[in-house]
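Reviewer 2 asked us to include a model.

Predict the structure of this chain.
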Amino acid sequence: MPNLYALVVGIDNYPPPVPILRGCVNDANAFRRILLEQYNVPPDQVVTLLNADATREAVIDGFREHLCKAKAGDIAVFFYAGHGSQEPTTGVFLAIEPDYKNETIVCYDSRLPRGYDLAHKDLEGCDLIDKDFAVLIQNVAATGARLTLVLDSCHSGSADRDADDIEVIPPGVRRAPAREEPQPDSAYLRKPTEIVALLRNMDAASSTDRTKQARRFVEGASGSHVLFAACSDSESANEYHLGPHGAFTYCLLQVLLDGKPISNQELYTRTHDLLQSLYPIQHSHLVPVGDEDELRNSQFLGLTPMPRGNFFMAWCDRGAWKIDGGRLYNLGVRDAVALYPANSSADNLADTTKALTTATLTAAGPSESTVAVADVSRLDPQQQYKAVVTVRAGRINIRLDGDPTALTELRSALEFSVYVQEGTSPRFIVRAGSDGYQFELPNSAQNIPGPFDATPDGIQSTVAALEHMARWTMRVELSNESSSIAVDDVDLAVSYYDKDSQNHDQFHGLYVPPLATLPLQYRNDQPPSIRMRVTNRSLSTLNFAFLVCSSDWQITTAFLPQECITLNPTEEIPLRDGDPITMTLKPGATEAHDHMVLVISRDPFDAAAFALPKLTNAAVTRDIDTSPAAPPPPPGDFATRRLEIITRR
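Predicted model (structure tokens):
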């Protein structure tokens, strides 16, 4: 069994001028009890720092002297409840901080008078800033331990506030006033030039960020780790009157108190949904750094994979019952679900007689749907429930041809698939023989996976490939005909250079309509490249995710600084920081088809649900350059723009 080492920090009684809080010590003590009582962690492996004990030096020592005891295969946990803040950045960090701010957590003595060194002995103490936090994370991750971080604090402030303004922090908000003076270079845990090199050389966090705030606290830190963050960069972390507790920690504890093994993804989803029912304007985030799929599906504070299973979560949001599944999962209006207690076992979920009641989808967004409950008296609006699909109105049609025996085995494996079914106008065809299964894709230029052997493992691989391709297709074809977001509310602009008849460079630019095709051609054996920009032309704030859907059945969201980004009216943002997106064909390939999908929503949403890994045994014909140039689905009304790019050699 792996050892678990935890550092738990909670600060309520900050010395003036930092506002005091009420629920942070309760948060820390409750999380410590969870570790001791539910995870059976020995008390000497949990270091708890409360109030005056939680100095900056003590937190740093807690990382270096306690969490670094963890060895390869062990588990390290850092929990923090307290104030977050910002401070100006200077020097070499200006090049990597677009808003010129460092994100910080505020230790007990962070604002007390003390000297950094002889040259700065008149300055007050310092916060624990994101750059130093990344160094501490790397110290722990370098041991080979699995690191989990839970931060219930606000890491934002008004980024465009004048230095002379007085920031008024509402009671019960975990944000300390931003500092006016930057931290001197001598106070960093490593030389600033070394930290910049660290951040630029390691891009694991940058490829999986959820918010700017979350990215900064893990950016550049190597090794596998997971961050649960209480709120987005532009939001506040609130306190909840029960306990009192932080609203995020309260919701997290409610889920953990079930006492059942739970994956990181399910813990995040259930906590996020419960938090939304209490504080709709606060959005928690899950940031896995490393093997994203493996980390999302791994057991919370454990190493054993915990597949989510065939259920969604249902909860009551201001009188309306919802589930955390939608069109991305091929759910649609008139589909039906059965509702079970949240702690139901897999065996109980398979028994419809154990369901409390049923519900029918009345509205379906990409990743969230509204349902009409048959008997609402059987449900408690303060609780969550598991929802199992019982009736599905639409799946991707396939056709199965060939050897009857091989088809019987495949049909048996596909019987309960929620993504594909046999039907007319098939998108995929499977040819079965005594020796295996081969795919055909009518009217498609996508890569063809397989073939797969006629063995139990080969049959499972065939089903997995079909369902993967179906999910990819659903994401690419995501649309909302009833959206109130007009075509001219959003500009998706594409620019590129081509050669004219005299081999001179010729500039092209276009605005992408809801559906468009862009042919690109190699010139002088050089791959084509494009630049793209998104502009909010509407009169209201909109939220965006950008999907890169490649011909190897992969979907990434790496072209925006955050997987879901908010733009105010007239704001615009270039994709990949304005750097060219190069469309490179693999050696021997002459053509590739890729889809770029811009998802637009009036409400914030978790764009992580869109991502798909490569279909590993599909032949890859082309690379889209998704790496950053420098290190660095919607529940309500939504719309999409789709651009198919055809690259030819």
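The radius of gyration is 26 Å. The longest strand covers residues 591-601. We have added this to the supplementary material.
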